[in-house]
Structure formats: structure tokens, C-alpha cells
Amino acid sequence: MSSLKAYIVTRTLMVIPTVLILLTLVFFIMRILPGDPISAMVGQKVPAEVLERMREEAGLNKPLVIQYIDYLKGVFTGDLGNSMIWGRRPVMEEIMDRFPATLELTVFGFTISVLLGVLTGSIAAFRRGSKADTGMRIYSVVAYTLFIPWFGMLLQMFFGVYLKILPIGGRITPGLAPDHITGLYVLDSILTLNLESLKTSLLYLFLPSMTLGIVLSGAYTRILRNNLIDVLSQDFIVAYRARGVREWKVIKHAMKNAFIPVVTLMGLQFAILLAGAVLTESTFSWPGMGTFLLERIEYRDYNAVQGAIVFYAVFVALISLIVDVIYALLDPRIRY
Amino acid sequence: MAKHKVLIVGLLLLAVLFFGCAGEKQEAPKAEVKTITIGVTDKITELDPANAYDFYTWEVMNNIMGGLMRYKPGTTELEPFLAESYEVQDGGKVYIFHLRKDLKFADGTPCTAEDVVRSIKRVMELQGDPSWLVTEFVENVEAVDDYTVKFTLKEPISYFLALTATPPYFPVHPNYKPDAIDPDQTAGGVGPYKIASWVRDQELILETNENFFGEKPKVDRIVVKFYKDATTLRLALEKGEIDIAWRTLSPVDIQSLKGKEGLQVIEAPGGFIRYLVLNGNENTDYPTKDKLVRQAIAAAIDRQEIIDKVFMGTMEPLYSLVPNGMWSHIDAFKDKYGDGNIELAKQLLSQAGYSESNKLKLELWWTPTHYGDTEKDVAQILKAQLEKTGMIEVELKSAEWSTYTDYARKSAMMLSLFGWYPDYLDPDDYTAPFLKSTANNWLGYPYADEKMDKLIEEASKATSTQEREELYKQIQEKLAEDAPIIPLVQGKLTVVAKSNIQGITLDPTMIFRYYLLDIS
Fold it and tell me: For residues B227, B233, B238 and B243, what is the CA-based torsion angle, rounded to 10 degrees?
């Protein structure tokens, strides 16, 4: 396992330059674009001299390099700075207000996509050539091509407006938010044994996570089907079957082998998932990071955008790391 | 097949868990509490009147706080609110307000003249975004005694009472940080409601303020739910998730909700205006430097067509920067150019040296999200209207908001679409920021005219309404003549509510007063 340890350490250290490069790019691109947070926020009304004073207070009058060094110093001491608009709240506070919502949606969407993908992919592979296989293949193509806002709205109209059984938007019924522990409503409801909040938060989660889950499941269906078919035709499976090994054991071995590319995909999907979450969040008025980031880009809130991207980058890098470790554990041949 | 079965069972369990919950009725606790849920697509930016400077946050502040004066609901008439009466002295330079003696913050702490002074001085010291509404005008503010507040102004200002009805003048609870902006503070001020809870971007729950001096609201609890877009807001109303859909449904949605059973659509004129800036900056090579060109553009625009095709009747035509319904308003542009007057436009263009073979080339800028998703259509219709003259060619250009405001200040846009929400309801707020040479740099077109400056200056100081009215009429006529800005449309306010909701009162202040609502 020592090589695995070394691998983990190397991969962890690699996160630092990755984030640094990303941060530098975002820092300069944001500033090269015309416009700044101060004039975008106050729009037209504030007198020019006040605007100038506000720019100075925000440090925007300093040379770019000095601004960059100041910012890096902050980041390395764990301070992402303050938002430059609306209350100038610490960026970390702004992120922590919204990140749990995104994480909750992402975890549920991710779980649903993997479960649906594995289920449909396995059915297709084990019933290769049957109507079920055709059905699952069609499902995978359709799911993959669905446009989140459109599909989300269809679900809202059917389950919300027509059947009136699921909420249209938001995260929980007003007033029912559980006591804050992690910010993840489902988890907090369980931890505080608040059943009403648990029920409500699951209800609110259903449509957005289903939308995200279904759209992302298509890729798993396809990849698992193809890999399972491939594995099932390999010699060792044929040999198992020829020796009369029980079918469930055959499936177990086949699944384990076919799962390696699925795990890779899971890692890759996580970044896509976060992008998909932006669309899902805005369709379902989910108060998460996606819409926050879009809004702050529009207002050129430099610190908030940089902070959010650094945060995302570290998060995605950690997930990739976890996925790679699982990958290495699943396939002992893999060492770097 | 065992693995397969486990997966199926797992998925089924998940589905049962979700749908098991789905059958439950979603209802907030305390069902006996009279509650109204309002849906909006706006957001609260920060709950500190020293720094909040956006329309929706000011609306919330007007429900949890109040000023010395306020607009009488449903009108544009000012009346004393936290003050019982006021006196004007020293030729309009000194204002003395006598406070009510029963003022208390929501937690029962008394609110005295000291609190009013502390709050206003705090705004002046913190120098937040809207602080200019105080610092530009107020020299000093002091507490004469527990119930008397004295303002000494830098110079007499005829609309000072209107300023005292804006949030920077609202007294705030002593809990507000004295030396820093306090964006998450929920202690509020003296108002009919208090904040019971606020989850950023998600929900705001207001409850009746038991210590409020005035009539108690009829609804115990107001819940505001924040939606990301108009489509979700509309679906939430149709589903019954909210009782009232307030700002902002799309024109198409409003149209289709009209006449729908169980819903009422209430409309009223709003003070929000849209206009086109024509850059006449002498340092540029824009053809709009030529007054004849600007006048031709003013003549060619057909406002009714924009309203019919883009806004589906949710706006009204506007022929002056001073909105319809405000005292002194005249239809200056209509009187001078008519509406969609292509013949006159052609005539003016010919005088300016353009023809069908030598077309006037214009660049028209618009911004995609800041004014809603109808903006592109407005730009396209304007292009079509101008090109109808046969002598103009329009190129459409767009930039997102922060770039757009930057371009405006740098004078980089030839023609650009903008909108304006008032800070205080007075013709001054619709004229001085656009036309006064010392105040309009943000337009990128530093329109400067001595006569105009003089008229605006006089109008802001004149004490008689009659005199002011006469001056504002002259200002509007001069604006139409010079045409640096062309007013296009004025917003209507629209509320779509369930039919059991009463007390919806809309007026040009555009403040939705939750405390007037009732539910049957």
C-alpha cells in the first residue's frame, strides 16, 4: 500500500498548483474584462466622486500586480476576502450560506444518476438484444440529450401544477428549516430528529435531484452496458459459467470488472454535475452556489467569483482524488 | 441476479421514501396563524438602510421600518409617520420634526429623537451607497429633546420631506453595528412588521410587531419566497405554493393569467421608466452629436408598438422623463414630434444631410438580463422603427451589465437603452440626474446646457409648487428640443393574487405594503 500512499500524497500536492493556476487565470481574466463591481452594483445613480472613493476603498485603484499579491496572501492564510458588493460580506460566509444547498442537490442528483444508470445499464447488458435492451438504449440517448430547464419545467408542470404533490421551487417550506448543523437540510433534520423538516426537505429535493439524476444517468447506462457486454464475453466469465459457477457469482465478478470505467466516469461527471447544478438550481429556484456564481460574474464581484472558483476547484480536486483512490483499490494493477 | 434485485429494491425504497412524503400536505406550522405567502424574483441584498440601495430591499424596509414622513398608501402624497408634525424655518434651511411619544422598536426598546439622530449620523459616517441622499443635503442633524429632531440643510431643498421618507433616514434599532455596515441585521426599526426569520435567497418571514404604534396588520405572518425566474414564479402561483406573485412575472404570463379562475390581476401605474440615451458627446465621432439626428430618432419611435408587441400592455407610453401622473408632467415629446412620425423623421434626416443612398448608420446597445428578457425585443423593434425611414441603418450590440455600465461611463455607446427607478417621488429625481451638468457623468454623454442647469437649480429650490411646476414644464420642453434622452415607456405594476386576498394597494412609490393585506 506504500505506493498507494505516495500516490495519494502526490495527487494531493498536485491540487495546489492546479488551484493556483486556475486562480491566477480567473483573477486576470475578470480584471481584463471591461466593467467593475462598484459601477455594476450602484448602476447609474451614485456621483462619480463617490464611485471613485468606493473603488479606492475596495483596493481597485492599486496596480494589478499588487492586487494579485494581496489576494494570494489572503488565500494562503485562508482568507478569501470580502465580497465587493452588497454588504461586503466575507466571501467564505457567502459560500457557506449556499454551498450546503449545492452539495445536497449534487449528492442526491449524483446518487440517483448512478443508481438509474447502473440499473438501466445492467438490464440492457444482461438482456442484450431484447426489447428491454432497446428500451434502455433509447432511454440513455434521450436522457443524455435532455435540456435541464426544459425537462425540469415539464416535471414542475406535471408533479407541481397538475398533480399538486411536489413543490415547484425552493429548498424547504418556509419556517421549517432544521437547526443549522451542517447546512444540509436532510442531514440536519436527521441529526435533530426533526421528521417534519426531513419529509419537507426530501419533497423539495425530489424534482431537482431527479431532473439532474435522470439527465446524467444516460452516460452511465451506455458505458455500463458496453463494458458489461464486453466483460461477459471474456474468457474468464465463459470459464466460470463452463465450470458451473452460480450465476450471481458470475454477475458479481462481471460487475466488479465493468465498474472500473464507471468509477472513472463518476469522477468526471462530478464536474459536469456541478455545471448541471447551475441550470437545475435556476430552474428550481434552488438557493445554491450555481446561481450565486452566475450573478456575481455578472456583477464582476471579483473576490466572490475567485473565492467560489477556488472553492469549487479544491472540492472537485478532492472528489477526483477520492475517485482515483477508489479506482486504485478496485483495480490493484493501477499504481502511478 | 441477486445484485440486480438489490438494485431494484434499493431504487424502489428510494421511490417509496420520496412518494411516501409526497402524499403529505405541505403546510407551515401554526396553521391558525393568518399567513400570506408572496413570491418574488427579486432578492434582499442587505438589511442595513445605510448601505442597501435596491428597489426590493427598500420595499422590505418600508414594511419593517419607517421614516419621519411616508407616502400615504395608494397616493404620492406625503404625511407624517414617526413624526407627529414638522416645522420649516429659516427659509427652508431648517426642518424640525416633532416625534410621536409612543415609538418603540419591535423588542419594546423606546425610539427617541436620539435614535433618529444616531441612525442618520451613522448613514453619514458609513458613507454607504445611498448615503448621498443624506450627505448631499444635510449639514447637521441634532436632537433638541427626546421628541424633537432638527435638521439643518446645506441649502433649502424643496423636496426635503420626500427624502425623509427614504430608508437612509429610517431610525434603526441600537443593535445595528455603530461603525460598520450590518448586512445580516434583522432587528429592523419602527414598523408594522418585524423579521421572524430570514434565510438569504430563500425565504423571509415577517410577523406582526406588537409594539407598533399604529394599526396592527390584519395578517399575522407574511412569508416571502424568493424565486430565480418568472417561469418558476408563475408555476408556483398556479400550484398554490404562493398566494401572491409580485415582481416580476413576464408580460406573457400576466396576459395568460388574466381571467383565470381563482386569480385576480391588479395593475397600477408605476414610477419605473425606460429611456434611450443618444450620445451627443462632442469628443466622439457619433452622428448623434447632431441635434437634427437626435430629433429624427425621437420622431421615428413608435412607443405603442413597443408596448403592444413586447410588453403586451404591461407598460404605458411615456413622452417625458417626468412620469405620467406626476405633477408637472407634460407630453413634451408627443407634442413636439408625435409618435412614430416617419415623415417628420425623414424630413429631419434630410436636413441633417442623410438620404436613402447615404444612410445614417447607428449602433444601438442593449443589455441582456438587467432589464429582463424582453430587452432584446425592445432593441429589435427600435431597429425596425428607425429603419422604416429608409434612411437609417441600425446595428444592434449588447453587453452584460457590468460591461454595459462601464461602457456608458466611458461614452462608448452611441445609442443605449436604460431604465430608472426613483429614489424619491419628485420631478427632481427624474430630471436633475440626467440633465444637470454636474450630476450626469454616468450617462457618458455629459449633456451640459447653461439654461437647463439654471432651470433645474431654480426648480430644486423654489418653494411654491406653482413656480416649480412652471419650471419643470420648461425643463421638459427643453429636453424634447435637445433630445439627449428619449423617454420610451413607463412601467405598470402588476400583482397576480388568489382571489381571496384583499388590501393590495399599489401606487407610483412602487412599494408593496404587506401590512395592508388581508385574507378571507
Answer: 70
Which of B239, B370, B431, B438 to mutate against chain A (most A CBs within 10 Å)? B239
Q: Distance between CA atoms of A261 and A49, rounded to whole angstroms?
A: 59
Directed axis angle between helix A131-145 and helix A195-232, to 10°? 120
Q: Do A169 and B236 touch (CB under 8 A)?
A: yes
Judged by CB atoms within 8 Å, which residues 250-309 of A form the interface with B? 251-252, 255, 281-285, 287, 291-292, 298-300
Question: For an interface test with A, which of B6, B163, B202 has the most A Cβ atoms less than 10 Å from its Cβ?
Answer: B202
- Cell 467593475 sits at which residue? A36
Cβ–Cβ < 8 Å for A238, A244 = no
B24 confidence band (pLDDT: 50, 70, 90) = very low
Suggest the residue from B7, B21, B321, B367 to mutate for an interface test with chain A (most A CBs closer than 10 A). Answer: B21
Any CB–CB contact under 8 A between B201 and chain A? Answer: yes
The answer to whether A248 contacts chain B (CB < 8 Å) is yes
> What's the first-to-final CA gap in chain B, in angstroms?
59
Q: What is the pLDDT of residues B219-239, one digit of tens each?
A: 999 999 999 989 999 999 999
Report the C-alpha gap between B164 and B187 in whole angstroms.
Answer: 21
pLDDT at residue B26 in the model:
45
Cβ–Cβ under 8 Å, residues A116 and A213? yes
Q: Nine-digit cell at A157?
A: 408542470
Q: What are the backbone angles phi and psi of residue B94, rounded to the nearest 5°?
A: -120, 130
Structural domains of chain B in order of their starting residue, each with its CATH number: 35-198+499-519 (3.40.190.10), 270-492 (3.10.105.10)
Give the nearest partner residue to A34 out of B46, B183, B403, using CB atoms.
B403
CA distance B391 to chain A (A): 32
- Cβ–Cβ below 8 Å for B239 and A42: no
From the candidates B27, B129, B404, B447, which should be mutated to test the interface with A, based on the most A CB atoms within 10 A? B129
Query: From B201, which residue of chain A is nearest by alpha-carbon distance?
Result: A287
Three-class DSSP category at A315: helix
Distance from CA of B7 to the nearest CA of A (A): 7
- ipTM of this model? 0.87
Q: Which three cell numbers stand for residue B192?
A: 408594522
Answer yes or no: pTM beyond 0.90.
Answer: no
Instruction: Give the pairing of strands B501-502 and B392-398.
Output: unpaired
CA gap A181, B68 in Å, rounded: 42
Model pLDDT, residue B16: 46
C-beta separation of A277 from A290 below 8 A? yes
Q: What is the C-alpha to C-alpha distance for residues B260 and B238, in angstroms, rounded to an integer? A: 10
Other Cβ atoms closer than 10 A to A107: 16
- Stretch 22-81 of chain A: residues touching chain B, C-beta under 8 Å: 33-37, 39-48, 50, 53-54
Q: How far is CA B312 from CA A189, B308, B385, in A?
A: 46, 5, 18
Distance CA A62, CA A69 (A): 11
Coil, helix or strand at residue B222: strand
Q: Which of A125, A117, A120 is CA-nearest to residue A233?
A: A125
pLDDT digits (tens, 9 = 90+) for B75-91: 888 999 999 999 999 98
pLDDT score of A2: 65
For B203, the closest chain A residue by CA position comes to A174
Question: Using one digit for the tens of pLDDT, what is the confidence trace for A103-115?
Answer: 999 999 999 999 9
Is the confidence at residue B30, as pLDDT, over 60? no
DSSP structure class, residue A159: I
Q: Is B76 exposed, middle or buried (0-12, 13-18, 19+ CB in 10 A)?
A: middle
- Judged by CB atoms closer than 8 Å, whether chains meet at B3 and A284 is answered as no
